Amino acid sequence: MSRTIEDLLTASMRDEVLGLRPAPDLVARAARRHRRRTRVRLAASAAGTAGIVTAVAIGLTMPSASPRADRTEPAADRTGHEASSPRTRLVAAMISSAQLSYRLHLVNTSTLPGHRMTPTAQPRDLINWYADYSGVYDPRTSSGSGVDTMREQSGTLADPSSYGKVDGHILVRIIGDRYYTRFSGKAQPWRTGRGTLVQALVLNGGRAWAPTDGASANPAALLAALHQIGSVRLAGKSGAGARALDTYDFRYEIAGDASVKPHQLTGTIVVHDQSNLIAKITMQTTVTGAGAQIADGGQTTFTTVMIFSDYGVPVSVQVPTGAVQLLRPLPGS
Amino acid sequence: MRAEEGFEGLDTLVAHRGGALLATATLLAGSPAAGEDLLQAALERVMRHWHRVKEEPEIYLRRTIYHLAVDQWRARRRRPEVFGKTVTELELAAQRAGQPDGTDAVHLRLALIQGLAQLPSRQRAVLVLRYWEQLSESEAAEVLGCSLGTVKSSASRGLARLRVVTAAWAVEDSQASKPLVNGVCS
């Protein structure tokens, strides 16, 4: 009987894998590696990225601690403006920006350099997109809405050009002290929990994958965190007139603990010179595991980029009907 | 097998379907050890997205195995050594083709498996989907997230290369029904 190459290939494959059984502890091994990875993220949240998340939250929840800013008039007297320290100006810009509604584009990623997908795989940088959020927010009413674009982790798909490929969306609404999220897809319900926009983004709908601490909506705590920024300097000026921008660098020392070594958070804040409103915040920190419980003692770099625009944009958000209450309270809620 | 906290049903899935999943991973990865690595990596991925995939974990797990395999191979380009055999051994096996020692069919199957392992990643994944999983072309395209045309062309090219690898043996070309070179293979 003659046989086609397709038949032979099928038979050959069947012979090759005949009797294969996975190791009895395969699921347990996978779970251990999964938990170690999660611990890195959670540990980083406790120490490494608290500053990042705090700063994001500052932009969203800063209380009305200064005279109301108006986008149509200069924020401060020019002479006093120049005379104030970079730190003071930065705080003033934070406060001014938090008096107005705005559009926000926030991208939060982590990078594991030289990560091995499997024990025998070639090492490569592995990038996680925790959030790629675009939306509007009004700090005065603590309400906002937007879309978080979920992206595939890099290095996992067939096509290298798909790094960061869109893998769905999460609709996000913030109303008061509650957030509402809904995954894309048929018959997905709205889910709701108590928390901030930051929590809605990084908690991925209720599961703690990413930084959690520092996202408290307690304005006093957030303001205190801002004042703790260690080093602020005016890095440069660019543009002229209404397009003039001031760029500040800051550095923030973060103490180590049993999980992670001491490290720094560095960042850049770009401020519109005339209006004293924040245009862009970029922050980065690299966390190194300090304990054996941290996977491979490896490093994870967290990066956050926030672009603020369209100050004064109208914001109207409705409570979704039929939202499902998340069963477990969220960390920091 | 102990149930892993938070991943209810996953250990049961692996207990019942682990053999088939490992077989797929082995064919994709090139050896049982690499296959188990691949399956473990896919399980970790499933755990990471458990809240989204727990309703249909096997579908997601299987899809992830393919995606991981294709991606890893793309990074490695071609694997010079597969299933513990080298290219030279493969050539020697081909030279033994037709020897009347009763091992001809064994050598042919070995050559096919080794040839499969040396195919570009997408071609290999398509052939495993089509001739191991017995999926249709459209089903294979859905698993890989590519077009039907890509599946067709990958399968065609992959089989063409396997025909070259196994040219020393008698294999009927199902596409063109060419005459056999060395007689009929049983």
Q: Keywords, please?
A:
heterodimer, A: 333 residues, alpha+beta, outer membrane lipoprotein receptor (LolB), chain A, twelve-stranded mixed beta sheet, 7 helices, extended, disordered C terminus, B: 186 residues, mainly alpha, Arc Repressor Mutant, subunit A, two-stranded antiparallel sheet, 9 helices, 2 strands, 65% helix
Structure, described:
The complex is a heterodimer of chains A (333) and B (186). With 333 residues, chain A is α+β, with helices and mostly antiparallel strands. Chain A has one domain: outer membrane lipoprotein receptor (LolB), chain A (Clam), CATH 2.50.20.20. Chain A has helices at residues 5-16, 26-48, 50-61, 78-83, 86-97, 197-202, 219-227; strands at residues 102-115, 124-138, 143-151, 166-175, 178-183, 191-194, 231-238, 245-254, 263-272, 278-288, 299-309, 324-325. In chain A, strands 7-8-9-10-11-1-2-3-4-5-6-12 form a 12-stranded mixed β-sheet. In chain A, helix 3 (50-61) packs across helix 7 (219-227). The longest helix of chain A is centred in the N-terminal third of the chain and has 23 residues, at 26-48. Chain A is extended, with a radius of gyration of 23 Å. The N and C termini of chain A lie far apart (71 Å). In chain A, 44% of the residues are buried. Chain B has 186 residues and is mainly α. Chain B has 2 domains: 1-77; 78-178, Orthogonal Bundle (Arc Repressor Mutant, subunit A). Helix content of chain B is 65%, strand content 2%. A two-stranded antiparallel ribbon of chain B has the order 1-2. In chain B, a hairpin with a 2-residue loop joins strand 1 and strand 2 (85-86). In chain B, helix 7 (121-131) packs across helix 9. Chain B is globular and about 55 Å long. The model of chain B is unreliable at 73-90 and 171-186 (pLDDT under 50). At the A-B interface, helix 1 and helix 2 of A face helix 1, helix 2, helix 4, helix 6 and helix 7 of B.
